[in-house]
Amino acid sequence: MGRVNALAPNDPSATGRSDAPDPLAGFLALRTPEGAALLAGLRDYDPAQELATATRLRRTHPAALVSAALGQARLRQRAVAKFGAEDAHRMFFTPNGVEQATRTSVAAHRARRFAAGGEVRHVADLCCGIGGDAIALARAGIRVTAVDRDPLTAEVARANAAALGLADLIEVRCADVAAVDTSSCDAVFVDPARRGGRGRIFDPEAYSPPLSWATGAALAAPRAALKIAPGIPHEAIPEQAEAEWISDGGDVKEAVLWFGEGFTPGAYRATLLPAGATLWSAAPLPAPPVGPVGRYLYEPDGAVIRARLVADLVARCEGRLIDETIAYITGDRPYTSPYTTGYEITDQLPFGMKKLKALLRERKVGVLTVKKRGSAVEPEELRRRMKLQGPNSATVFLTRVAGAPTMLIGHPLTGSDG
């Protein structure tokens, strides 16, 4: 089989310019004592003052080294949101690495699942990127063979293992993943590239490597996990996989396909971080009932919706959907769950801007939260047209009820997990 990884954007040959700066050489310069000292002094620098900072530093350092250090300092600041300040300011990054790396909370959850049974002691991390997942696995006590075909990316991953004191547990190889023998590993993790020159890739067979190749690698191992886009079509999920959708802080971050011992083929799972709450079903659930809007409305977490587990919540709260195509649950009694955000509904109106504006003026609403499902109206445009004034707040849902465009007005339930 040929090379399954697409030409990495960090590869100078991708530009077609022989005179382009060598990113690998620039990165290695940062690893020298001079580069390390220069980078350490830029931890709190203000990007708005970059020109003045660069001018000052170039008086005593080579221009190429200053450019590399400033670029790395910017990447570290961006990476704080995913890795936390303590790790981000010790680690190294590439632009694609920051964009595509798994955030620490999600990587740690996945590492815990690998480590849970105690049988996984060595994982092959294929398409390891800058090493975010390898770091989480190593911190869970698992030895990692991390593989990436791009020389710069592999060098960055190697530097990160050293910077965080994990070099004894993480071996980084610069190689094509198709050429790596994983037979000595207890598990395989594959994180295919899902971005190309034109942005996100939605076809799983256009991933690099393709989903079919990654599935074959997974099925050849005792256990495996494949990181995929959360919007993957359900029909593209292999029947041998347990599919898990993960949200963090209410935002769906990714999906994972689990294979092998300890996982349930055909099961769907929704996991909510940081709480770690998990909802799952071993088989598809029947369609939930549909009925009129009650006193309460429940908005399921996005991971629950992606995992098609809304029917489970409908049964738990003894409720119903407001429309067979809309993932809003309604009920007649208050219900608290980590998987939903609850609201008390005060008004139900046919869709109409004038009616909504009049009601909000009457209620003296100055702060309006706009939520929508099944509506083309843009929240910012609606807020602008309402000309809000007053001390009160409200939430409006632009949606469909039994197929009809509808506005539901209410407020969050006290103590709601949302």
Model description:
- The protein is of the alpha/beta class and 418 residues long.
- 30% of the residues lie in helices and 27% in strands.
- It is built from 14 helices and 18 strands.
- It has a nine-stranded mixed sheet with strand order 3-2-1-4-7-9-8-10-11, sandwiched between helices.
- Strand 5 (195-196) and strand 6 form a beta hairpin.
- Helix 7 crosses helix 8 (132-139).
- The longest helix is centred in the N-terminal third of the chain and has 21 residues, at 63-83.
- The chain is globular.
- The two termini are 48 Å apart.
- Mean pLDDT is 91; it is low at 1-18.
List keywords for this structure.
418 residues, alpha/beta, 9-stranded mixed sheet, 14 helices, 18 strands, disordered N terminus
Topology, number of strands? 18
Strand order of the largest sheet: 3-2-1-4-7-9-8-10-11
Structural class estimated from helices and strands? alpha/beta
Question: What multimeric state do the chains show?
Answer: single chain
Report the uncertain regions.
Answer: 1-18
Number of DSSP helical runs: 14
Biggest sheet features? 9 strands, mixed
| Helical content class | 25-40%
Q: Based on CA inertia axes, which overall geometry fits?
A: globular
Q: Mean pLDDT, rounded to whole units?
A: 91
Query: What percent of residues are in strands?
Result: 25-35%
Tell me the span between the first and last alpha carbons. 48 Å
Report the radius of gyration as a whole number of Å: 25 Å
